[in-house]
Amino acid sequence: MNLRRVRAIYRKEFLQIRRDPRSLSLGLGIPIILIVLFGYALSLDIEHVPMAIWDQDNTKASVDFILNFKNSKYFKIVGYHDSYKPLQRHIDYGTALMALVIPKDFSRDLYSGREVPVQLILDGSDSNTATIALGYVNSVVYAYNTNIVLQSFNKGVPINPEAIDFRPRVWFNQDFESKNFIVPGLIAIIIMVIAALLTSLTVAREWERGTMEQLISTPVRPLELVLGKFTPYFIIGMIDLVIAVLMGRFVFFVPFRGNIVLLFALSAVFLTGALSLGIFISIATKNQLLASQIAILTSFLPTFLLSGFTYEIFNMPKVVQAITYLVPARYFIVCLRGIYLKGVGLRALWPNAVCLIVFAVITVTLATKKFKKKIL
User: Fold this and answer.
1) Parallel/antiparallel/unpaired status of strands 116-123 and 98-102
2) Does domain 49-171 have CATH number 3.40.1710.10?
3) Where are the strands (E) in the chain, listed by range?
């Protein structure tokens, strides 16, 4: 690989960006895709909220209380544990939205007429989902209190009308500020916009203007061309990332609890994959309009709708949940919110980081292999 040739392509692309700051139009198929996604794949109702449980009492009374959650369509028990550490791991890794802790004297206090303190640990990273889920829990507790009081009258057992002293504790976003989960997720949207609306036109523009023949006649190699086209947009993407981080911290006052180096490293990996995907689409289509439409359909829309940015993935139909595993932004948004709000490191995020690396390697390889130095 010759760095001088890469630099020449890179400078040429910068000149193209400066001379052609046009906006791209959306295709006619976009409204149809939106209607299908909003009408079928997405729902504003929250169901199957993942919940972890630590039952310190392990009596019939505590099991009956847990059954109220287990038998509800709104909750899904993902594990029973015997300490706080696995509960914290569930919350940190995003495998549970909430954790229920039942004290060891639950049944004794319940049947002696005293209040029973039950703790709920709730992940507030997504304030909208957390608020709705907390409302569901309150409804279950209220129904349980009502039922237990009716039973006490029949048995002649004195039970407090408010038997369960429900004590929720929200982690990561105590005030349910929606901006705290929207701003980190927007970084993924911004990066995908760079890929969908800019790089998808780079090679296609060369074919439409007749300059690709000149590039083919030069000694430039496929990898050098991809890197030369890639570099200007990578710089723009990293500048956008800096702006987003600074605005999130100093304009919207979003808390940043993680490692800034890890944030930029994972963002660079995701940006590499996103830009390479755009270049691959541009090489494959050779038409700017078609390239922009395909890029939006395959990158921007899935990032916005199927990544967990707008709607919870566990609330989607099973078929759509399976499709989300093919959306790279799904893994990147988990990393963003984990670094921003939870302050977790690579130890918790490494599975998502590996998926981002695989995405980047695949798209760079596809873009390089697809470009052929010949006119078909």
Assistant:
1) antiparallel
2) yes
3) 49-55, 75-81, 98-102, 116-123, 164-171
For residue 55, the cross-strand partners are: 102
- For residue 339 the two structure tokens come to 């670094």
Helix (H, G, I), strand (E, B) or coil at 219: coil
Residue in the block written with tokens 């996604």: 37
Q: What's the gap between Cα 216 and its chain centre?
A: 40
Give the model confidence (pLDDT) of 140-173 as tens digits: 888 888 787 776 665 555 555 555 666 777 777 6
pLDDT digits (tens, 9 = 90+) for 314-335: 878 888 889 999 999 999 999 9
CB 76 within 8 A of CB 51: yes
Sign of the dihedral defined by the CA atoms of residues 100, 106, 109, 111, in that order: positive
Residues of the chain with CATH 3.40.1710.10: 49-171
Terminal-residue alpha carbon distance, the chain: 25
